[in-house]
Amino acid sequence: MAREREGRVLRSIMRSGGSLVVSLPRSWVEAIGLGEGDYVMVEIAGSSLIISPTRVERESEVRLRFESDTRSLVDKIVAAYLMGYDSIRVIFPQQMKEALESELFYLKERLMGLEIVESAESSMLLRMVIDPLELKPSEVLRRMWRLSDDMLRYSFSPSDGVGLEVSGLLEKIEDDVDRLYFYMVRILRKSLANPALAALLGLSNVEILDYRLAAYFLENIADRAFEVSGLISGGRASENALHANKISEILLENHKLAMEAFLNRRLDVIPQMKKNLEVLTKLLTPPRLMVEQLRIRDAVLGIADMQYDIANLIIPRLT
User: Fold this and answer.
1) Domain ranges of the chain
2) Which whole-number Å values give the CA distances from 138 to 5, 51, 72, 230, 258, in the listed order?
3) Which listed CATH number (3.40.50.2300, 3.40.50.1470, 2.10.260.10, 1.20.120.140) goes with 2-53?
4) Which class in CATH covers the domain with range 61-128?
5) Which of these, 276, 306, 287, lies nearest to 242 by C-alpha position?
6) How many whole angstroms from its chain centre is CA 118?
7) Is-contact 255 272, C-beta < 8 A?
8) Residue 245 near residue 159, CB atoms below 8 Å
9) Residue 134 carries which DSSP code?
C-alpha cells in the first residue's frame, strides 16, 4: 500500500523469501532514470535510510555570461561557488579574455578548491577539485580555530606585530581564514541540498546550522584580532592601561574552551568561560580610556562574546 502526502510516500514492508523489501516510488525511479538491474546505494543515517543512485552524479554545471562589467561577473562566480556548483563555465567576448583571465586567476586563490581547467578564446571552465569527504567541516573548523588562535596570540604582541604586518603574515592568515569560511559555507549548503552527503559527513540539519554559525564567529574573531593588532602595533594605545597580557591570556583560554565545548560537547567548560568573561569586562572598564583604547575594548569584548556564543551552540544539541 502506498500513500503520498506533501512529497512523502508511505510504503508497507513486504516479505520476499527471507528478506523484507520496500518498493521504490515510480515517480522517483522515472525522474532518476533507474531500471531493472540497476543498483542503488543505501546509507544508514541514524534511524533513517538514504537511497541514492550508485552511478556518478551528473556534474552540476552553471553557465555565466559576461553582460556588463567584470565585477558583476566575479560576484556571480562567487555566488555559484557558494551555492555548491561543481563546474562554472564563463562565457565572454574574445576581447575580454586577457582582463578576465587575470581576474579569475586572482579569484581562484580566494575560493578554496576552485581551479581553471579549460581556457578557450571566449570561454573558461572553473571546476571544484576538492572532494567534500576529504575535507570535512570538522577539519575546516579546526583549521579556522588554529588560525584565529594565532591571530589572537599576535594581537597583543606589538613588538612582533610591526614585523608581522610588514611581512604580510597577518594578512595572509586572515585571507586563509576567509578562504576556509567560504569553503565551509559551500559544503554546508551542499549538505542541506543533498541529504546523502550530509549523512556521509555525519551531520544533522541542526549541526549544519551550528557549524555555519561557528565558522561565522571564527571568521569575525580573526577580523577583530587583526583590528586589535593594528591599533596596538601602531603605538596608538597603551598596553599597560588595558592590562594587555592578562587580556590576551583570557582570550586565548576562552578560545580553546570554546572549541572544546563545540567539538567535544564539553558543557562543563561554559561556567569557566563565563567567569573569564566577567573578569575581562572588569579589566576593560578603567576610569578613563582614549579613543583608540575604546576601540580595542569594543573589539576585545566582541571577540569574547563570540567565543562564548560558539560554546553555547552545544546546548540545543545536548537537550
Assistant:
1) 2-53, 61-128, 137-318
2) 36, 25, 33, 30, 14
3) 2.10.260.10
4) alpha beta
5) 287
6) 27
7) no
8) no
9) T
Beta pairing class for 48-53 and 61-65: unpaired
In the chain, the amino acid numbered 223 is D
Contact by Cβ (8 Å): 56, 29 = no
More confident residue, 3 or 206: 206
- For the chain, the residue count is 319
Max avg pLDDT among 2-16, 242-256, 257-271: 257-271
**Helices and strands (H and E) in the chain: how many:** 12, 10
Specify the pLDDT at position 296.
87
User: Given 2.60.40.730, 1.20.58.220, 3.30.56.10, 3.20.20.450, which CATH number is that of 137-318?
Assistant: 1.20.58.220
Measure the CA–CA gap between 266 and 279, rounded to whole angstroms: 22
Q: DSSP letter at 23?
A: P
Is the predicted pLDDT of residue 187 greater than 80, yes or no? yes
57 — pLDDT class (breaks 50, 70, 90): very low
**Residue 88 Cα distances to 70, 71, 99, 124, angstroms:** 15, 16, 18, 8
Which cell is 292 given?
583608540
